[in-house]
Backbone:
């Protein structure tokens, strides 16, 4: 299907290419992993991919961190047992430790 053909049908108002971005991402991941295996490390591949900070920007990580500060409890000892973290003091996904 081409855009011209879709327009010629007179029924299509929008084309969505979301599937192609996912497929392109998988293709890129295969290439990068093949390069890592071929090179025996990440030294070459790391220079050709987006930095981790770029991923954080796409995710809106600054807003996530702001919301964590606003909405997450600093203390959990006042919560019922079933609501407390299973492993107090363990590192969270963001590397900081919650108070025990």
Residues:
């Amino acid at each position: 299907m081409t855009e011209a053909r879709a327009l010629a049908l007179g029924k299509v108002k929008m084309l969505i290419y979301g599937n192609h971005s996912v497929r392109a991402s998988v293709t890129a991941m295969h290439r990068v992993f093949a390069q890592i295996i071929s090179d025996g490390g990440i030294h070459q591949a790391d220079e050709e991919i987006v930095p981790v900070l770029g991923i954080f920007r796409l995710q809106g990580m600054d807003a996530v961190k702001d919301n964590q500060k606003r909405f997450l409890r600093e203390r959990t000892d006042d919560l019922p047992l079933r609501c407390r973290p299973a492993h107090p003091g363990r590192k969270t996904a963001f590397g900081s430790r919650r108070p025990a």
The chain is about 50% helix and 0% strand.
